[in-house]
Design a protein that fits this description.
single chain; about 220 residues; alpha+beta; about 10% strand; globular
Length: about 220
């Protein structure tokens, strides 16, 4: 999307206020402001950052057939209503489109869930406020799917271990891990550091969002 379109979006995105502070994380504790986390999620700078990320990632359309190209126009018309529903805890995510992606070498298929671009925007905005809360508690030896970390850094760490005399490597894979995450256990962990009931409800609703495959909707019990 061109810069003029982005500027028009900024000028018409009422409610994306600025000036929300981001106090530091308390070790192994709840952040003092996590009871108002949703306000931080929908503040303007955070939403604009999420919007840029979603547009840059492109990706396929979800069940509503709306592409990232159409997201700006959609938000210009509907963002105030969406924002109000989020703040009041009334927002209901749309169904997730289930598609099958062939695995390399023809060894079966990988199931992929595609949320609508609107839900991808909200999820990205949510990720941006939750990540600073949870990331400091992750292992220093964890490199996957973390901001500022890469496979290259993992390789350098392994080289460091080898230089220090380590000679054994353990390689393991948790089969279908993301498909089998227990919702209740996950939410109990999130609740330890997040107090805002609207955020907790929103996360739970995303976990329970219907999955549409071949026109049939199912409700996930895990994953």
């Amino acid at each position: 999307m061109s810069k003029p379109e982005n500027r028009e979006y900024e000028q018409n995105s009422e409610g994306m206020s600025t000036g929300v502070s981001s106090p530091g994380v308390q070790p192994d504790g709840i952040r003092p402001d996590t009871d108002k986390l949703l306000e931080r999620m929908v503040e303007r700078n955070n939403m604009m950052k999420a919007y840029s990320k979603v547009v840059a990632n492109k990706g396929s359309a979800g069940v509503d057939n709306m592409s990232v190209v159409d997201l700006g126009d959609h938000l210009r018309r509907h963002w105030p209503v969406i924002r109000k529903a989020l703040l009041e805890g009334r927002y209901i995510p749309q169904k997730v489109l289930r598609v099958e992606i062939p695995k390399p070498g023809g060894n079966g298929v990988r199931l992929l869930g595609i949320p609508t671009v609107t839900d991808r925007l909200i999820q990205q905005a949510l990720h941006q406020v939750l990540n600073p809360i949870f990331d400091p508690g992750f292992s220093e030896h964890s490199y996957g799917f973390r901001l500022g970390r890469s496979a290259h850094q993992a390789v350098l760490a392994v080289k460091g271990f080898a230089s220090g005399g380590k000679r054994w490597v353990v390689d393991l894979d948790l089969e279908k891990f993301f498909d089998r995450v227990n919702h209740d256990i996950l939410m109990s962990r999130v609740t330890r550091k997040v107090e805002d009931p609207r955020i907790l409800k929103l996360i739970r609703r995303y976990l329970k969002a219907g999955i549409m495959a071949d026109g049939i909707t199912s409700i996930p019990k895990q994953g």
